[in-house]
Amino acid sequence: MDEVFSAISLLYIHPLKSNLSHDFITSKFNPDDLAFCDEILCKVSRSFAAVIRQLPPTLLVDVLIFYLVLRALDTVEDDMTYFTSNETKVKVLQSFHKTALLDPKWKMMGCGEGDERRLLEEFPKCHSVYAALPEGSRRVISDITQRMATGMAEFVDKDLGQGTTDISQYNRYCHFVAGLVGEGLSRLFSVSGLEEPSLATELYLSDQMGLFLQKTNIIRDYLEDYVDGRAFWPQSVWKKYSLSGDLGYFAEPTALDATNAGLHCLNELVTDALELVPDCLAYLSKLRCSEVFRFCAIPQVMAIATLDKCYHNPNVFTGVVKIRKGMSCLLINNTTDILGVHGIFHKFANSIMKKAQSVRKGGFADPSFDRTMKACSTIIELTEAETKKGFTQKSLVNSSIVAVSCAAGCLTTYISPGVSKTSTVTTAALASFGMYSMLQMMGWPRKFIMSGSASTSLMPASELCKDE
Description:
Structural class: mainly alpha
Radius of gyration: 25 Å
Number of helices: 23
Number of strands: 0
Distance between the termini: 43 Å
Order of helices and strands: HHHHHHHHHHHHHHHHHHHHHHH
Shape: globular
Strand content: under 5%
C-alpha cells in the first residue's frame, strides 16, 4: 500500500520539479542548444534525468553538461567496432578533453548506437552550453574528463571477456568510470557555493560514493556484460567458485552446482559493495543543501535496494534483476533528509542479514556469511539512532492522522441522517480511509517529522543563497 501511495504522490502531488525553465538558466544559455541537451539527457539517461533537473538553477546545467560530456566519452569507449585499431581508439580517448571541449565544431559521426550516437553527432550543441558555464565549472569538467579518458585508455588493450583480474583492478576500473564522477560532482557542488569548499577535498569519500553505485551496476549486469564480452567481475573472486574456469559457468541454469557456486560468488561481491556504505553515509552527512542531498541520496538508496534484490538471487545469472517501480517511488519520497535515508539503509541491511541467516539455516554454507553479517551489522549500527527516531515520530504522526481520519468519517455519517447502522459504519470506514490516504499522499507524515526533527541541518538552495 505504501508503494501505491508513493507512486501517486510522486506522479501527481509531489513530483520532482524541473528547474530548467528558471530565469537564471533561460537568460544565460542558448535556448535551442539547451533544449537539445535536456532532450538527449532524457534519452540517454534512464535514471539521472529527473534528479539532475531538480537541482538548483545555479548548479543544474553544470551537472547536466558534466553528465553529457562523460556519457559521450563513455560511448567512445564502449564502441568495440568503430575504430580500426586499439591504438587509434586510445589516441581519441586521450585527446577527448581537448577536441570535444575546446573545438566548438567537434563531433564524431557513426560512433555508438541510437541516442548515444546522436549525442556525439550533435555535440556542438553541448559545447555551446558548456562554453557558457562559469570558468570554475568548465575547469572541473575538463579535468575529470581528461583523467577518466586516461583511465579508460588504460583498459582498452585488456581482455575483459573474463572480467577484471583481481579486486585491485576491479576497484581501479570503478574509480576511473565512477569514482572520478563523485570527485567531479563534489567539486562542482563546492564551486557553485551551495556546499562548503571543504567538500571538494573529500576525495576518498567522493570516490567511495561512485564505487558503490558502479559495483552495484556491475553485479546486477553480470549476464549482459558477459554476453557482450566485456565483463568486470574480478577473476580472483569468481575463479574460486567456477568449476569450469569460465565466468559463464554461473549462467548454466540446469546445473545445481553452477547455481550454488554462482550464489557464493554473488554474495561475496554484494558484501564487498556493502562495505562501502559507511563511507557513503559519511559523505551524505556532510551536505547542507537539500537539493544536492537528494541528488546524491536517490542513487545511493536505489543501489542498496538493488543489492538487496540481488543478494542470493539466482535470477542475476539468467536475466535482469530490477526493483519495482512502486518501490522506486517510495525510496525517492523518503530521501528528503538524512533521517529517511538512514531508515532505508537500515531496512535493506536488515533484509540482507535475514536472508543470509535464513539460507544458512536451510543448509546453504556461504563462505562470505561472517563478512556479510559484519557489513550489515555495521550499517544497522550506524543508522539505528536515526531510524528509531524516525519510527517514533512517524508513529505519533500516523496516530494523529488516523484520529483525524476517523473524526472525518464520523462527521460524514453525522451529516448523513436516515441511513442504516450498517451503511453508517461502511460510510465512516470509507471516509476515514479516504482521508487517511489523502493525507499520506500529500506527505503529511514526513512534513511533520521533518519540521520536528533536529537531526537534519539541510537547507534549500534559496535559503543558502539568501545567507550569502
